[in-house]
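dumping this here before i forget
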Amino acid sequence: MSQAGAETNVEAGLDGAAGLNEPTVGDFLQLMKPRVMSLVVLTAMTGIVAAPGNIHPLLGAIAILCIAVGAGASGALNMWYDADIDAKMQRTAARPIPRGRVTGDEALAFGVFLSFASVLMLGLLVDWLAGALLAFTIGFYIFVYTMWLKRRTPQNIVIGGAAGAFPPIVGWAAAGGGISIESVLMFLIIFVWTPPHFWALALYRSRDYERVGVPMLPVVAGPEETRRQILIYSVILVPLAVAPYFIGLGGFVYLVTSVILGAGFLYYAVRCRSITEGREGDTAAKQLFGFSILYLFALFGVLLAEHTVWRLLA
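structure:
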């Protein structure tokens, strides 16, 4: 069955339920992937605070809001396009469209409106370069990752992961810093972090992806090769994450934090590579996935805290 046909059948089967259950504010918030938005807000805020110069607090708050809404728009459009496979995957079956809480048309209209509103507001009120970068990020996530790469190549998350790495660059530009080596380094940290983070999830969710025909690396290349790739990216990530200290982006606290967290990341990556069988293998992948979230939040949280203190002291 074609994707369009599958989507039609899914939506047709759910429209009746949607009519009985009017969507709530919570349903539309769920479309925006709030857990992903929290990481976007943190990394974008780090870019804004770490950038040279001073941005008015109100404009900084508007910039963060626009970037968060833009990320939410991407999530809504992603759920609209992937409604056919979301309904068949255990991990995503409870999303608003498969549950019949929101129709595909409602999700599409919601996502498109938020996309244009966030880009225009960021450009008009804060900075047009930042607005253009946000527009590019949304377009890249929807057209390049969701519509083109996700269902065609096992490298989908490697290339598509660039969309999730752009918020600190957008934030840096919003604060008037343009594009610099510091913002690009923050981008690279998230970009290299994304494959081991997401492939760890894909290892213990591989049956879901196999069922819907999404060529995630564990499905196409097998779990052994996936674990090897996770370890390779982890070895690249750890020294890359220490690098902000050596260009003046991070301070001593960041250096210590990145080294300790990097050792932990490598430990879990090696453990995931070594333990491959049954439930223990799934547990090792889950532990790496969970730690990877803590890892990135802690790195950017410390960067944000350091630059906030420096600004207050200055």
